[in-house]
Amino acid sequence: MSDGQERTTGTGHLATAAAWAVLLLGLWLWGRSVTDVPPSPSGPATGDVAGLGRQVRLPPAAAPLAPALPQRVDIPELGVQAPVVARGLDSRGAVDPPPFDQPGVVGWYRSGTTPGAAGAALMVGHVDTATRPAVFYKLSSLQPGETVRVVRADGKVAHFTIDDIRVLARDDFDAQQAYGPRKPGRAELRLITCGGAFDRTTHSYTANVVVSAYLSGTGP
Questions:
Q1: Where are the domains of the chain?
Q2: What's one GO MF term for it (predicted)?
Q3: Which of 76, 119, 150, 190 has the most CB atoms around it within 10 Å of its CB?
Q4: What is the pTM of this model?
Q5: pLDDT tens readout for residues 46-84
Q6: The domain 10-218: what is its CATH number?
Q7: Buried b (16+ CB within 10 A) or exposed e, 135-158
Q8: Own/partner pairs, 76-83, CB within 8 angstroms, 24+ separation
């Protein structure tokens, strides 16, 4: 994962590639074992790709914005308005989600792309805690064409249009396919949480929910 700045030297490209490899490996591991607490009684939403077979006319992509730190994520369809905290990598090389005592907070990978800038910005959140749903509990119920808004420190609100929702099994997990940029030069966003069933033997969920979106405009 790049640090949000262009690098033109051979060493810079190698460093960027190495960072991508570490991050993608960590995200793969994160998808296999992201939590050690049992799910809330009702369990998270699960299933195949949301919107399968649904024909939606999507707006064109907007030109990427200059980098600016994210402050809040709004998902109107889910009633989510969540503060954003910058996060690094944990000891396994995965994006470190917010602490379990902050279930309403979204973590942004601070060494990667800022939401609205060119590239794929990564945001992670818990699906639940031992006692209650968390910020991304209903993430897999989103549909293509719906909107995610990111309030940025520069005063702009980046509007992202969802174009893909995947519930990916932890077996044969392809981290590059899940988290890598889909189209060069486009500003993209990934919202990531746990999905599938909770495996009480491994103390982890059996899948990951990955919502993909792209910048389609700015506004209030």
A1: 10-218
A2: hydrolase activity
A3: 150
A4: 0.78
A5: 444 444 456 789 999 999 999 999 999 999 999 999 999
A6: 2.40.260.10
A7: bbbbbbebebebbbbbbbeeeebb
A8: 76/146, 76/147, 76/149, 77/141, 77/142, 77/143, 77/146, 77/147, 78/138, 78/139, 78/141, 78/142, 80/135, 82/106, 82/125, 82/135
